[in-house]
Target: Major facilitator superfamily (MFS) profile domain-containing protein
Amino acid sequence: MEATMGEPLLEHSFSKYLGLPKNTVHRGTLLMACLLGVVQYGVVYVFAVVVDELAPYYGLNRSAADELFDMLNYGACALSFVPGLLYDKLGATKAMVIGTCVGALPILLLLNWSWLVGSVDVLIGLKICYLIFGMALSFFQVIATFAPLEAFPVQYLGAVSAAVQVSTSLGATIQSAVFLLLKAHFKDFVYAYYLYMLTCTVGCGVLMAFAFWENGRILHRSKTTIDTDNTDSLGSQLMSVSFAYDCLLFYLGVGFVFSYLDAAGILNALVGLGASRATVAFGIYGALARVVCNLALDFTRTKRCGGPMTYIALSLISLATGLLAVAVAAPSRGSVIAMNIFCSFGAGGLLGITPAALRLSFGSGSLGLIYGLLYVLTSLGIPTWGSLLPRPTQSWSTYCGTGYAVLPVACRCL
Model:
């Protein structure tokens, strides 16, 4: 069957038997598989809590725990160009199979730790395993984020991205709850947690690979047939003003968001609200911002000042407003609550709208690689902002004031 531009390429569809538009079932199953993928990536968001429990298990101190946390995040951020490149060159199915195998390997080593004891230093062995596992988790996040944006028509870009982004927030909540449940019910909870991670990594990876294989013709049709795609070469895109701005955005903006989670917990505890208050606020208000920004994009994208850059600017302004609340004076309960709300809205909006913005700016031909390269900048931005975090006896004015002053610069670059 010969398909015209923009029409479904699958010759057979269950959707017509259900009275639905063509390929609705195929796209729906692909989307559900991708939602599982971003939930699996939630391990990265909760690892700061998990590693505090893992370190004593191996006889390591707090400093070593921080190193393990950094290694997992380095693999998940700085090495995310690897799944992006494989996704662009090999397609979603093969890339997902590779990511699943890579993810299973370090967990198998951790489950059979006696193989390595005596041959390598414990900390070095753990850092290698967590680095590899962090990179493997980025397969789930990168592919699950962009595969639906390719499979669905561009007019549904915002709605589809909203579903993925909400599941990203949900993933952090689910992964945190699972860890606490395992810790409460298993004496050797670390071994139980590794079994859980292995089961989820392999199970989720297999389901995603099968969904991508089954829907491959819909998934990758946009790489050659959608006339809205950017047709510039990869080299031209990487040398463009748009990519230069995105580098600044991911280094300053997204890098700040990742550092903010640590800082917000400390600030909330400082004024007696409890460190978990920051995580709860981030989950609730961040998820709301992700939904609002992406759903609104479908209605405003074709209007003047209604594109994704507007929502990015509003997100950065919201982040700066939240920081201003605690930058002008010593943090109080009221100012920290205001920070929680505004910064969570800003962080959620920024993280939620950037995938759709990149899809519209660069098309889908090299989208995975571009996204991965930008996250390399994020991995550099995280320690940059982290270096501004104060000692317990120092003022927060440097961290919060710098964020308030610097983040709006990205808005002026629009």
About this structure: The two ends are 44 Å apart (CA to CA).
